[in-house]
Specification:
The protein has 111 residues and is of the alpha+beta class. The chain is built from three helices and five strands, in the order H-E-E-E-H-E-E-H. Strands 1, 2, 3, 4 and 5 form a five-stranded antiparallel beta sheet that branches.
Length: 111
């Protein structure tokens, strides 16, 4: 298995590559994370905005669906910027197992 850092880097690269293949260019990407303690998981998100046509957005979403990577679409907001151009805000994420999964966290909590 690859490390979390390697998997995250690969997922980030793939998201950027798929966007470029669709004709979209994410300018600024933020990478918030959220611990899902009850499941022993860490959610790493990719939050970014792009501008493009409806066809480019559909192509990007289709390419994400075809990807072998586990990347989910958590949120998408679309608004018209100008005739034929859309402004799109996306939040994608992937999950990682934490060092201490739910079973070990539960056993550490017992007296």
């Amino acid at each position: 298995f690859s490390t979390e850092s390697a998997r995250l880097t690969a997922a980030m690269r793939e998201v950027k590559d798929l966007a470029a293949r669709a004709g979209l260019e994410p300018r600024t990407i933020s990478y918030p994370e959220e611990r899902l303690e009850e499941f022993g998981l860490l959610r790493r998100s990719f939050v970014f905005n792009v501008e493009g046509t409806y066809t480019e957005l559909r192509t990007f979403l289709h390419l994400l669906e075809l990807s072998s990577s586990f990347v989910s679409i958590d949120a998408i907001q679309v608004g018209e910027r100008s005739p034929g151009a859309l402004g799109v805000s996306l939040r994608l994420s992937t999950l990682f197992a934490t060092e201490a999964g739910p079973a070990s966290a539960a056993s550490e909590a017992r007296p």
